[in-house]
Specification:
Largest sheet: 2 strands, antiparallel
Strand content: under 5%
Radius of gyration: 29 Å
Number of strands: 2
Length: 239
């Protein structure tokens, strides 16, 4: 965001970025710039003074959406328990991804030519989700060892599966499943089956945690072989 901008110029800048984000998400990045200016309530000349090229506007939207997504984390943790804060943040990430989908055709070239833009987004989002996960782990609500990168990839996958904002309810259901997979249940981490053996306590500590066999399981089971020397000779049946 430009520095030392007059209040009216800042207001125009903010309106243009917000209008562009909405329009890109629904119409794509090649939409009419005049339409974006009209949506923002300013003239096309004002748009070009702030953003000389379409790529400048796309970059501004991309940075703004990333920074907004990251800056909301403290408020989420202040107003909600860590698990709910994480869920709400992942919902916001999906909305952010839908905005990026609207700019999908233009973003790769912009990310490749604008130095530091991709790294800025990756580091900012990684730090945001790390803060949320750390808060959940400290509260005993989220299992340890969860990779922030894995969480982001999972949310990206959810966005691809849901496909479009018209299937937003699908994304919310999948986010709920992802949240449940990250949280603790009954004081025990919900490890996947493949991980349970690897993370199970070993030695005496492991034996102490294993439940005792029930009484019925300790009753000797008779042999299936017939008793010898009883019954009819050679028939194996008892009288």
């Amino acid at each position: 965001m430009p520095r030392s901008m007059r209040a009216d110029a800042q207001a125009n800048y903010d309106r243009l970025v917000e209008a562009a984000a909405r329009t890109f998400a629904t119409e794509g990045a090649d939409t009419s710039l005049k339409a974006i200016a009209a949506e923002a309530g300013v003239g096309i000349g004002t748009l070009y003074r702030r953003f000389p090229t379409r790529e400048d506007l796309i970059e501004a939207v991309y940075r703004n959406q990333t920074d907004r997504l990251c800056s909301v984390v403290p408020q989420l943790l202040e107003g909600h328990d860590p698990v709910e804060a994480l869920r709400r943040w992942m919902e916001a990430v999906v909305d952010y991804m839908f905005t990026k989908q609207g700019m999908a055709d233009a973003l790769p070239a912009i990310l490749a030519t604008r130095e530091g833009l991709r790294l800025h987004s990756r580091e900012a989002l990684g730090e945001a989700v790390s803060t949320l996960l750390d808060a959940g782990i400290a509260a005993g609500r989220v299992r340890g060892g969860t990779s922030p990168g894995d969480v982001l990839m999972a949310v990206r996958g959810i966005t691809l599966i849901s496909g479009h904002e018209h299937q937003r309810d699908v994304a919310s259901r999948l986010i709920t499943l992802l949240r449940d997979g990250l949280t603790m249940s009954g004081g025990t981490a919900s490890w996947p089956a493949a991980d349970r053996k690897r993370h199970a306590p070993q030695g005496d500590a492991g034996r102490a945690l294993r439940p005792a066999r029930p009484t019925w399981a300790r009753v000797p089971v008779p042999s299936a072989a017939p008793p010898q020397g009883t019954g009819h000779q050679g028939c194996g049946r008892t009288c």
